[in-house]
Design goal:
The chain contains 13 helices and 28 strands. The protein is an alpha/beta fold. A hairpin with a 3-residue loop joins β18 and β19.
Length: 483
């Protein structure tokens, strides 16, 4: 049995809810499934887990999803949401769109017992104090077991087949103070917090009691991480500063500054070198400072300490330096894992590999939590989504007792990054067939059209292009209210 040490959401350690022992009671939850249905449990509602949830045959499988959030986050649009270019609902899809066909639990999976085929889960919702009730016996086919007397509010799930798609969390490299004082950009809650903080910085700087030095410190926006997330947020923030902020806070807009930090010699290291140079040149023309080969040593409230620069005051710090392993994945020691990333190794059919060397035919791992052994693929939404589509097809054949022996193949559709002012870069130079790269307005059109086609619901297919063509922004401007 394997136990995760703590739960982390978007780089922040989440304390477990306390339980009033005097009112803790034995409570049984029964969720009897038809005997002819196998129990499929999906861990995670990200690019991997949510795609399987959409495509799985829910009439043949008894499907249960366990995720600490009750929504899928369309991560490429979060930077736009964080500055008001898009509204938050454009970047989320509710998991319960598929209920009651699917049982959904907003919870963390803390323990996997591979021998007994059970999961120990902890609710991700606030605790509820309950009166002691008489418990009913579990049926033999029950999917859900209950807590035991004297324990916390955890519960146990049984599975026949398991998909591990728990993703990864923000990498902090153990830099002191990052979790406490930096913002991450992993889900809509992060985007909302960043948007609130940006407006708060300008309202604070607008107070007549502050000096110009204090105002400049408040309006110094620092982004650590020169990958696509950091670059796109820098670009979206630049658009905001030179549109609505310049119009409504003209004196303060001239004091605002955006600085992008990275330890690497160049930003966008995974892109073609010429595209990275194009992005750097554009940022410098736009007044965005790029500080490569810079190392953050520690972060305190309203300031960070950079080895090559010294003390750097800031009003907002956004941290996007890569991925850290999920605590659940870290806790597993009976499966083969990548030595550096700690992600689970799978075979070409996405089944996990036991340390003894054989694959487990009932467990699959996809997304940022997994890597195909001998094949290094980037930890991107594109890879997770393609793996999920492949696995959904495989599971739908398994439930019909049909063979599905074809191995997974990744088809590189290219990488995109927005650079501001309706310009972007598109890199498909490493694709196996048609190799191309674009920059400027044409790449921006590719960027927007790609996200339009990838959005899942009809509602968001309408909302996203409406906002992304800036039709509403042209008429009304971005919303600068703080609430």
């Amino acid at each position: 049995m394997f136990k995760a040490r703590s739960s982390v959401v978007c780089g922040r350690v989440q304390p477990r809810p306390t339980v009033n022992r005097s009112v803790a009671a034995t409570r049984t939850f029964t969720s009897s499934a038809p005997r002819n249905k196998q129990r499929l449990v999906i861990l995670g509602s990200g690019w991997g887990g949510y795609e399987i949830l959409r495509a799985i045959d829910k009439k043949r499988w008894n499907v249960t999803m366990v995720s600490p959030t009750n929504a899928f986050n369309f991560t490429p649009l979060l930077a736009s949401c964080a500055v008001g270019t898009l509204e938050f609902r454009c970047a989320v899809e509710p998991v319960r769109r598929y209920s009651p066909q699917v049982k959904c639990y907003q919870a963390w999976c803390d323990t996997i017992d591979f021998k007994q085929k059970t999961l120990r889960c902890m609710p991700a919702t606030p605790p509820v104090e309950c009166e002691r009730t008489t418990s009913a016996s579990l049926t033999e086919t029950s999917t859900t077991e209950t807590q035991h007397p004297g324990t916390d509010t955890g519960f146990t799930l049984r599975y026949d087949k398991l998909v591990i798609a728990v993703g990864a969390y923000s990498q902090t490299f153990n830099v002191p103070g990052v979790k406490e004082h930096a913002h991450f950009l992993k889900d809509v809650r992060d985007a909302r917090a960043i948007r609130t903080r940006i407006i708060e910085c300008f309202e604070q700087a607008n107070q007549p009691t502050l000096s110009d030095i204090q105002r400049r410190n408040l309006l110094n926006f620092c982004i650590v991480g020169g990958g696509p997330t950091g670059v796109e947020f820098s670009a979206e923030l630049h658009d905001l500063l030179h549109a609505e902020i310049e119009r409504h806070y003209p004196a303060l807009a001239r004091m605002a500054k955006i600085t992008l930090y990275d330890v690497a010699p160049n930003i966008l290291g995974n892109f073609d070198k010429s595209l990275g140079v194009y992005a750097e040149d554009k940022f410098r023309r736009d007044g965005i400072s790029i500080k490569t080969r810079h190392h953050v040593e520690r972060v305190e409230k309203d300031r960070m300490f950079v080895k090559e620069q010294g003390e750097v005051p800031f009003g907002l710090l956004v941290w996007s330096t890569g991925l850290a392993p999920n605590p659940l994945i870290q806790s597993i020691d009976s499966l083969e894992k990548h030595e550096k990333t700690q992600s689970l190794f799978t075979d070409q059919n996405l089944n996990v590999i036991r340390k003894e060397g054989h694959v487990d035919p009932d467990i699959w791992a996809i997304g940022d939590a997994a890597n195909i052994k001998g094949q290094l693929l980037p930890a991107t939404a594109q890879v997770a989504n393609q793996k999920a589509k492949y696995l959904a097809q495989k599971l739908n054949k398994i439930v019909k007792d049909q063979e599905h022996t074809k191995a997974f193949e990744f088809h590189n559709k290219g990488s995109l990054a927005y650079l501001g002012d309706w310009k972007a870069i598109y890199d498909r130079s490493s694709a196996e067939n048609v190799k191309t790269k674009e920059s400027g307005r044409l790449a921006w059109l590719l960027w927007r059209s790609a996200y339009f086609t990838m959005t899942l619901s009809v509602r968001n297919k309408i909302l996203v292009p409406t906002y992304c063509t800036r039709f509403l922004n042209w008429i009304f401007g971005r919303d600068l209210t703080r609430f």
